[in-house]
Amino acid sequence: MASSTTLSPMTLADAAQKFGTAKHFDILIIGAGQAGLSAAGTLHRRGLIPGKDFAIVDGNDGPGGAWRHRWQSLTLGRAHGIHDLPNFPLEHPDTWRPASDVVSEYYGAYEDHLGLKVIRPAKVKAATRLQDNLYYLTTQAGDFTTNALINATGTWETPHIPYYPGLENFSGTQWHTKTFRDVEDFTNQRVLVVGGGASATQFLMMLKQVTNHTVWVSRSLPRWNAGLFDPDWGRKVEQRVTTQVTAGYAPRSVVSNTGLALDQHSLRYINNGTLVFRGFIDSFWEHEVVINGPGPDGATINSQGPAVNDLLRNADPAVLDLHRNTEILPGHGTDIDHQWVTPIDTILWATGFRHSLDHLEPLGLHSERGGIQVEQDGVTAAAATGIFLVGYGASASTIGATRAGRRAAVAAIRYTE
Ligand SMILES: Cc1cc2nc3c(=O)[nH]c(=O)nc-3n(C[C@H](O)[C@H](O)[C@H](O)COP(=O)(O)OP(=O)(O)OC[C@H]3O[C@@H](n4cnc5c(N)ncnc54)[C@H](O)[C@@H]3O)c2cc1C
Question: Where are the beta strands (DSSP E) in 318-386?
Fold first, then answer.
């Protein structure tokens, strides 16, 4: 496989004349996280030479993808699961070390092992199409042309904060999962934690160490899931998300597909009053939040007591065994018509991320249904040739990204042959 087999010399000459110093690679990967590195590993294994046949550009100034930026108290043991990169086992690092350090070192070692020479920092500003099999990218480290683009840019660069009336008048501090650094920043604060996913519940449990004053709200009731999070469950979740993105819909939030794990740890915190859902945000004042829900004292929405009991009654026997000694507090009413106001100092938005795809905007890949439609393989963009998305939709997990990286690499090789 060489550039000359995929492009006529005339086209390359035209491009060179038009765009001067742009470097050409048959395949270009954007992003050196789990997804991009997995794709690079497969290209390497199939005999392609990094820096000659393909290259990776990455916006970070060092290895680690998004893991490079995660807060120090997120230890490897508390992360849900870091999957091995292809043929390069992570082995058994100390689970008490910060996941950000362990994963950054691991990715760095993989890059060295394969001689990937990732080009960084090289944030891609825009990708445009010169012709069907030739794309042009502008980056902070110069410009590139490529025949096939593997996009693996994750979500970390695109934090999502929903708007509520009056938010602009709120005068307290605001954090997001992306900016969260240390629980000490919240000492004795009255904290509104917004979000229905695993980040929100993890934050609430951590905040318990430094403040007794947290209020948990989200846009929907917590979706506790007492099922077994086994490979069969994982396959069903992946299948559901694949159905969404192959139809051109934007991927839904992670928790709406997975639910929240109702494990021993979270049950303890439900029972001690930490994981108590307080309702839905109505609006903000300068120092307060207005909430639609049953109120701060005792009454909680019917998602803690009865719902949890119901879940456990119908749960898998293996899950029941896990919770045999857990006492569930009785539940309360479901009065969400009630409106109440409570003072807060700080908002912690655990409201997730969107896929970081702005640089692909000039390619017009979005379907009218709001997402980028992909083919049945889960990686090939339907609206253009030679563009592959990894870490998007069903592959937005370390295990999914690893598998999809392989598929994208194989598809890109076929495309450029
Ligand atoms: C707080 C948190 C915890 C998580 N914990 C887990 C977990 O325990 N287990 C799990 O499976 N998943 C977890 N995830 C999901 C996780 O993000 C994915 O599993 C996986 O790590 C994402 O890999 P990726 O390669 O797709 O993206 P990333 O790791 O985000 O890598 C993307 C790379 O692309 C680069 N990039 C972005 N935009 C550009 C651009 N325009 N130009 C050039 N480079 C660019 C970035 O700098 C980055 O290096 C978690 C997510 C969050 C937010």
Answer: 339-343, 346-349
Q: Is residue 237 part of a domain?
A: no
The runs of H, that is alpha helices, within 115-184 are none
323 Cβ inside 6 Å of ligand 1? no
Closest CA to 36 of 410, 417, 394, 389: 389
Q: Tens-of-pLDDT digits for all 417 residues of the chain?
A: 434 334 444 455 555 556 668 999 999 999 999 999 999 999 999 999 999 999 999 999 999 999 999 988 888 887 777 889 999 999 888 889 999 999 999 999 999 999 999 999 999 999 999 987 899 999 999 999 999 999 999 999 999 999 999 999 999 999 999 999 999 999 999 999 999 999 999 999 999 999 999 999 988 878 888 777 777 888 888 888 889 899 999 988 888 888 888 888 888 888 788 888 888 899 999 999 998 876 665 444 444 544 565 666 666 665 555 444 444 444 434 455 677 889 999 999 999 999 999 999 999 999 999 999 999 999 999 999 999 999 999 898 888 899 999 999 999 999 999
Q: Quote the longest CA-to-CA distance of the chain.
A: 75
- The answer to whether the CB of 56 is under 6 A from ligand 1 is no
Residues 171 and 302 in one domain: yes
Q: What is the extent of the structural domain holding 142?
A: 12-157+353-416
Q: Looking at the 3D structure of the chain, how many domains does it have?
A: 2
Question: Is 138 found in the same domain as 87?
Answer: yes
* 115-146 as b/e: b if 16+ CB within 10 A: ebebbbebbbeebebeeebbbbbbbeeeebbb
CA of 270 to the centre of ligand 1 (A): 30
In a domain, 235, yes or no: no
Q: Does ligand 1 lie within 6 Å of residue 81's CB atom?
A: yes
User: Are residues 283 and 399 both part of a single domain?
Assistant: no
Among 349, 369, 399, the domain-final residue is 349
- Residue 196 Cβ inside 6 Å of ligand 1? The answer reads no
